[in-house]
Amino acid sequence: MATRISSSSKSMRKQPRQARSRATVEAILAAGAQVLAEVGWLKFTTNRVAEIAGVSIGSLYQYFPDKTVLVEAITRRHFDDVLNVLREIDGGELPLEVRTERLVAGMIEIHGSNPRLHQVLLRDAAASNELYATHIEFEAEYFRRYESFVGAARGRGDELDRKKVAEVLSSAIAGVIHDAAARGTLGSEQLRQELIAIVLAYVRHREGQLRIRFG
Questions:
Q1: Are residues 82 and 177 both part of a single domain?
Q2: Of 16, 51, 76, 140, which residue is 20 to 30 A from 31 by alpha carbon distance?
Q3: What is the tens place of the pLDDT at every residue in 69-79?
Q4: Domain count of the chain?
């Protein structure tokens, strides 16, 4: 069963129940992600977020008591978006080609909407204990899901090899996408096709090696 990045000990003051309050929280989170990507953790302020969101600072504080809670909510949402891409392609029901296409398309879509956000979140992981704990929880499931993606590695003594393949593959995908986001080329169809080709070539190569080794 899929898990979600859990809330921290410091959480939202109240949960939005009505459509209007949910819309307010959505506006705050969207504005918060925009401001965080632009200025980073140290210069991030709730006043600026409220201004961008078009709400009063009092309305913001109804839900988020301080900037740490708001940034953690933004972090959890982004990380859940990433994990949901991996969750949706988990299992062996779909062909490798289809899972790869969905993986690449999903990661491009997430990072294309706010290219700098993920980099800021990774860079600022140690800004607070709450954010650090959220990162640790995210990374644990992140690598488990990638291990499942390359799970064709079966048989004796293959666990360490599978972990290393997952580590290299996830780093390669993240590197290509983050670099493309920084260059403004994330929407390139050629980039998408090349990344799909890289993933398929690597996974198939490793599958072939493992069949020879453990077959």
A1: yes
A2: 140
A3: 898 899 889 99
A4: 2
List pLDDT tens digits, range 174-198: 999 989 988 889 999 999 999 999 9
The label of the residue with tokens 């650090």 reads 132
What's the pLDDT at 163? 87
> Counting beta carbons within 10 angstroms of the beta carbon of residue 31, is it exposed (0 to 12), middle (13 to 18) or buried (19 or more)?
buried
Q: What is the DSSP string of 139-195?
A: HHHHHHHHHHHTTT--STT-HHHHHHHHHHHHHHHHHHHHHHHHHT-TT-HHHHHHH
* Beta carbons of 45 and 105 less than 8 angstroms apart: no
Q: What is the pLDDT of residues 126-173, one digit of tens each?
A: 556 667 788 888 999 999 999 888 874 443 446 667 888 899 999 999
Same domain, 86 and 116: yes
106 and 196 co-located in one domain = yes
91, 165: one domain: yes
Dihedral through CA 17, CA 23, CA 28, CA 30, nearest 10? 130
Does this model's pTM top 0.85?
no
Cα–Cα distance, 164 to 45 (Å, whole number): 39
